[in-house]
Amino acid sequence: MVVKPSKADKKIAYDAKLCQLLDEYTQILIAAADNVGSNQLQNIRKGLRGDSVVLMGKNTMMKRSIRMHAEKTGNTAFLNLIPLLQGNVGLIFTKGDLKEVSEEVAKYKVGAPARVGLVAPIDVVVPPGNTGLDPSQTSFFQVLNIPTKINKGTVEIITPVELIKKGDKVGSSEAALLAKLGIRPFSYGLIVLSVYDNGSVFSPEVLNLTEDDLVEKFAAGVSMVTALSLAISYPTLAAAPHMFINAYKNVLALAIATEYSFPQADKVKEYLADPSKFAVSAAPVAADTGAAPAGGAAVEEKKPEPEEESDDDMGFSLFD
């Protein structure tokens, strides 16, 4: 005769298993398990078998085991898990890539009907078209203000209708109508809420960040540090180039306003003293446009003169 283990024995075995997993694994996914059936959970365990272990249990028991194990080992990082054990959650211990494991968990979703009293996780829209229901069923549509018409002895929905909004509770009429239409609008599975990695806890959205996202966020952080450094006049590596440029501008303005000068300001003073040097610099550009500079002076556009007037003014031919 096989003796069934008592509740105390089950608790001891569960505590030993949880402590063993905490020592063996450094990466843990905390996942919500609302509306997840036992068969579905078993399929998830099979899919993750090899480098991951799914552990479910009562929150009070998990918190107690984690707290006692942290005191026993002196590893207080385990205590970061305790605030995350809220609601119907489970722990996924893994040695694999966190992103890949999270994506694998998301694959195991099962469609479910809209049951009365459930909070809708998404908007439910009834598409237009023939429902296959006989005209005696129009009362369901009338109660929900869904426009219909009778087409070939069946009820047909004319336009798409938003039946349930996200966050609303499913009513009896909505649940009955969706059941008659054979629509299973919701899908449930383990949803990763938080990630524990060597004592650090962060949101699962971090797992989806790419290298481009990291570079963009780093550049944004450098810009903020630069702006703050310039605002409080505190030198940093990011703000140093801007500070040097601003200092050069200030010293240059002082040199131009006074007799003081330095090598980097001499050329600027030279240009300001003789503006014609700007025209010399612009001469090659003018040559490209067909205008010829004269004597280093500013080039003025000449109006073309008629050929006959030019011949009359000269008074002699080229062979004279």
UniProtKB/TrEMBL annotation:
<dbReference type="InterPro" id="IPR050323">
    <property type="entry name" value="Ribosomal_protein_uL10"/>
</dbReference>
<dbReference type="Pfam" id="PF00428">
    <property type="entry name" value="Ribosomal_60s"/>
</dbReference>
<keyword id="KW-0689">Ribosomal protein</keyword>
<dbReference type="GO" id="GO:0003735">
    <property type="term" value="F:structural constituent of ribosome"/>
</dbReference>
<dbReference type="Pfam" id="PF17777">
    <property type="entry name" value="RL10P_insert"/>
</dbReference>
<dbReference type="GO" id="GO:0000027">
    <property type="term" value="P:ribosomal large subunit assembly"/>
</dbReference>
<dbReference type="GO" id="GO:0002181">
    <property type="term" value="P:cytoplasmic translation"/>
</dbReference>
<dbReference type="GO" id="GO:0022625">
    <property type="term" value="C:cytosolic large ribosomal subunit"/>
</dbReference>
<comment type="similarity">
    <text>Belongs to the universal ribosomal protein uL10 family.</text>
</comment>
<dbReference type="Pfam" id="PF00466">
    <property type="entry name" value="Ribosomal_L10"/>
</dbReference>
<dbReference type="InterPro" id="IPR043141">
    <property type="entry name" value="Ribosomal_uL10-like_sf"/>
</dbReference>
<dbReference type="InterPro" id="IPR040637">
    <property type="entry name" value="Ribosomal_uL10-like_insert"/>
</dbReference>
<dbReference type="InterPro" id="IPR030670">
    <property type="entry name" value="uL10_eukaryotes"/>
</dbReference>
<protein>
    <recommendedName>
        <fullName>60S acidic ribosomal protein P0</fullName>
    </recommendedName>
</protein>
<comment type="function">
    <text>Ribosomal protein P0 is the functional equivalent of E.coli protein L10.</text>
</comment>
<keyword id="KW-0687">Ribonucleoprotein</keyword>
<dbReference type="GO" id="GO:0070180">
    <property type="term" value="F:large ribosomal subunit rRNA binding"/>
</dbReference>
<comment type="subunit">
    <text>P0 forms a pentameric complex by interaction with dimers of P1 and P2.</text>
</comment>
<feature type="domain" description="Large ribosomal subunit protein uL10-like insertion">
    <location>
        <begin position="114"/>
        <end position="183"/>
    </location>
</feature>
<dbReference type="InterPro" id="IPR043164">
    <property type="entry name" value="Ribosomal_uL10-like_insert_sf"/>
</dbReference>
<feature type="compositionally biased region" description="Low complexity">
    <location>
        <begin position="289"/>
        <end position="298"/>
    </location>
</feature>
<feature type="region of interest" description="Disordered">
    <location>
        <begin position="289"/>
        <end position="320"/>
    </location>
</feature>
<dbReference type="InterPro" id="IPR001790">
    <property type="entry name" value="Ribosomal_uL10"/>
</dbReference>
